[in-house]
Amino acid sequence: MSDLTLIRTSSDNADFRKLVSLLDRDLAVRDGDEHAFYAQFNKVDAIKEVIVAYQNNNPIGCGAIKPFSTSQAEVKRMFVHPDSRKQGIAASVLNELETWATEIGFSACVLETGKKQPEAIALYQKAGYQIISNYGQYIGVDNSVCMLKQLNTPTILDTRHLIPNK
After folding, report:
1. Helices 118-126 & 89-104, crossing angle to 10 degrees?
2. I want to staple 101 with a disulfide (CB 3.0 to 4.6 A). Which of 21, 48, 106, 166 is the partner?
3. 165 exposed, middle or buried (CB, 10 Å; 0-12, 13-18, 19+)?
C-alpha cells in the first residue's frame, strides 16, 4: 500500500461522489432487478462522516458512517476501485470509520451488505462483524446480510469512589 492516505471529509467531497458512482454501477450489475430497492437507502446527501482513501494522490476507496441509533453507527458506501483491491485498503477504511465512530461516541457499528457481495461479507467477518437478524427496511429481504460489531470504546475511569491519598 504505497502512499496510502485516508482523509476524513463529508459527502460533499467530489472524489467521494465519483467513487460512489462507480460503486452504484457495480451494484447495479450485481443486484440486477433488486438494485432500485437498495438504491433508495443509499443516498449520500448529508452524510457527515466520510473517509476517502488515496494512493499516490488518486482516490481509490471510500466508506462512510451515519447515525443508526444513539449508540450505533451504520457503515455505508464502502468501495475500493477494482484496480486497487486485495491490498488491505478496504480494511484500512473500515478501521478508520470504526475509530471515528468511537470518537463520536458510538459503541457499535451495524451494516447491510448483500449475498452477491461475498468479498464484502468476508471483509466484515475478518474485521469482527457478526451476522445478525436483518434490521429495518431489510427485514424479510433474502439477499440482505446484516452485521454488527461492538467497538472498543475507551474506558473512562470513575474516580469518585476512590479515597484520596493523605
Report:
1. 60
2. 106
3. exposed
